[in-house]
Amino acid sequence: xxxxxxxxxxxxxxxxxxxxxxxxxTKSGRKSPYFFNAGLFNHGESLLKLGRxxxxxxxxxxxxxDMLFGPAYKGIPLVSxxxxxxxxxxxxxPFAFNRKEAKNHGEGGILVGAALQGRVLIVDDVITAGTxxxxxxxxxxQAGALPAGVVIALDRMERGQHALSAVQEIQNTYGLPxxxxxxxxxxxxxxxxxxxxxxxxxxVEEYRAQYGISSSS
Length: 217
Prior knowledge:
single chain, about 220 residues, alpha/beta, Rossmann fold, 6-stranded mixed sheet, 8 strands
């Protein structure tokens, strides 16, 4: 089901060149016709909009959670923007993030922000290999809290080394729901229904036919 806010999200990230088209080599060595660069959410307005998109997807999902966690480094501004967007909607929730290296002075430790407790939702940009999610789950469980799920901006819906996508592997391994603001099916639908972007549709469809999965659920 393609919703108006997914259309608005894709329209925004394409217009701002955050979602780019061309030839890009992914971490897996594949040649992809598109690339999502969350690092280009690099000014106040774009982060505000992204947080609101995350909040909408999260609200629609119905996942219960008590707090948010953003894995370093990209997850730090993402979790902050989502916390602000939720506060705009009248729900102020605590959040935390981690350092790549433990701090041995001041407050010390590897975690920053609220103490990890209750049901903790992980906020990330995409899931490529699932490394940051696995590390986040370990930190949350070590703190005695419960991983509640993952929310990401874009689900590429493509296979990893085997039949499953990285998102499906996370779902199967940890039993966690993964919610995306938009996925590859939404992108293809958007390209197909907006004449100015249809020139990219065939390349995306060819990539999906070669590497894609039928569903992320």
